[in-house]
Amino acid sequence: MENNILEMNPGNSGHGKVEIAPEVIEVIAGIAASEVEGVSQMRGNFATGVVERLGKKNHGKGVKVELTETGIKVDVYCLMKFGVSIPTVAQKIQDNIRQALLNMTALEAEEVNIHIVGIQFETQKQEISAEIEQEI
After folding, report:
1. What residues does each domain of the chain span?
2. Which one of 3.40.50.300, 2.40.50.140, 3.30.70.1350, 2.60.120.40 gives the CATH number of domain 21-120?
3. pTM above 0.85, yes or no
């Protein structure tokens, strides 16, 4: 691991090398986290908010990837929907990210840390329609 690029070692096949940028891992982790039921949204920063307002979706939003000597460390920052079991949803996020990374890159994450930064409440009111018939 040098220059913040993951070099995959497929063996001595003679075909060349494969390198994966940390941004790719951020995107994979971001999509995997947002797929989990109970996650309301991923937390971004000001720059990602501006990019999304310009019409571009940032799939790596709310994910920080750190390449260490011992492996890959993933930090995920998200909002949960009100009423869900936070420990259950957090475990599902960790499992989904680990599986997605393994399937797509054959890499295993050393750590997948979930940071709950807020709770999203339902703001939409349900419309109740009732028909009242009066007999005259």
Report:
1. 21-120
2. 3.30.70.1350
3. no
